[in-house]
């Protein structure tokens, strides 16, 4: 039986409930650009099936405003890049201002796992600056010292939701599988959705509660009170 040696953490929805702040930042960017686009929670929950803020805006543009070929003469790609820069700046300011906290139990588990010598990683499709502002605020400027590897929007060749990353064939090389290859071990993943090949702990939130979590090792309300010892025991069990 393989021994638990590493933990992979997803970010949005797992480390913190960030999507309301992301949603507000997208709408701020649309208004700043003078667009009459406004995403509500219902629409955004559906758009979350598209990983990556740029990809999400492109999907919305192509499916809701296909007749719009450009904005202010800027091409589609340039406009999406500009909108995403506005959005990321708004999101960073909001998190810097305390709009987002780590979910219950997350920091305690990370610190305990680090102290007990487990390798820790982050696998996400969000932008690096979003990870940095969240964890700098929550842990301090040395936050990166806790994580051996960070796979994010800047390193993932294709942004697939973490659940699809792990369901995809080995050659996909998306974030979590890249970690498995790099570490030559089979880590456990605390993520938004289960994925084949990794033992996963799911902590749903309002944006993901409707998802199919079959295949997960456990579905928990959050990580409060979850210990490394419990994860060692769970790791020895089969997926549901
Ligand atoms: C991350 C995402 C991101 C955020 C928005 O999910 O889906 O797209 O919603 O961030 P996960 P960006 O952490 O589960 O991979 O605008 O920087 O993409």
Overview of the molecule:
The protein is of the alpha/beta class and 240 residues long. It has 9 helices and 6 strands, in the order βαααααβαβααβββα. It has a 6-stranded parallel beta sheet with strand order 3-2-1-4-5-6, sandwiched between helices. α6 links the parallel β2 and β3 (149-151). The radius of gyration is 18 Å and the shape is elongated. 36% of the residues are buried. Mean pLDDT is 86; it is low at 162-174. The structure holds xylulose-1,5-bisphosphate. Xylulose-1,5-bisphosphate (XBP) is lined by residues 10-13, 22, 51-53, 124-127, 130, 153, 162, 192. Residues 10-13, 22, 51-53, 124-127, 130, 153, 162, 192 line the site of xylulose-1,5-bisphosphate.
Q: How many β strands by DSSP?
A: 6
From the alpha carbons, calculate the radius of gyration and give it in angstroms. 18 Å
The arrangement of helices and strands along the chain is EHHHHHEHEHHEEEH
- Strand line-up in the sheet with most strands: 3-2-1-4-5-6
Shape: elongated
What is the mean pLDDT?
Answer: 86
Tell me the fraction of residues in β-strands, as a range. Answer: 5-15%
Please state the structural category.
Answer: alpha/beta
Largest sheet: 6 strands, parallel
The percent range for helix content is 40-55%
Number of helices: 9
Low-confidence stretches: 162-174
Instruction: Measure the end-to-end span.
Output: 17 Å
Q: Which kinds of small molecule does this entry bind, naming each only once?
A: xylulose-1,5-bisphosphate
Produce a short descriptive summary:
41% of the residues lie in helices and 9% in strands. The protein is built from nine helices and six strands.
């Amino acid at each position: 039986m393989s021994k638990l040696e590493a933990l992979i953490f997803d970010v949005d929805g797992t480390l913190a409930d960030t999507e309301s702040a992301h949603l507000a930042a997208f709408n701020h960017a649309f208004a700043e650009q003078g667009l009459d686009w406004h995403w509500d929670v219902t629409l955004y929950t559906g758009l979350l099936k598209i990983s990556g803020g740029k990809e999400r805006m492109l999907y919305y543009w192509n499916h809701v405003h296909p007749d719009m070929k450009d904005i202010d003469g800027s091409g589609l790609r340039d406009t999406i890049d500009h909108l995403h820069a506005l959005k990321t700046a708004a999101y960073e300011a909001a998190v810097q201002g305390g709009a987002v906290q780590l979910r219950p139990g997350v920091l305690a588990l990370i610190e305990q796992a680090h102290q007990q010598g487990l390798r820790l990683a982050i696998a996400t499709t969000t932008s690096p600056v979003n990870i940095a502002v969240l964890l700098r605020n929550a842990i301090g400027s040395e936050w990166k010292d806790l994580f051996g590897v960070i796979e994010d929007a800047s390193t993932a060749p294709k942004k697939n939701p973490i659940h699809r990353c792990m369901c995809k064939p080995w050659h996909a090389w998306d974030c979590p599988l890249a970690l498995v290859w790099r570490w030559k071990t089979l880590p456990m993943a605390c993520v938004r959705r289960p994925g084949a090949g990794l033992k996963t702990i799911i902590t749903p939130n309002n944006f993901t509660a409707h998802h199919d979590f079959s295949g997960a090792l456990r579905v928990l309300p959050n990580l409060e009170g979850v210990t490394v010892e419990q994860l060692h025991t769970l790791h020895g069990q089969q997926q549901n």
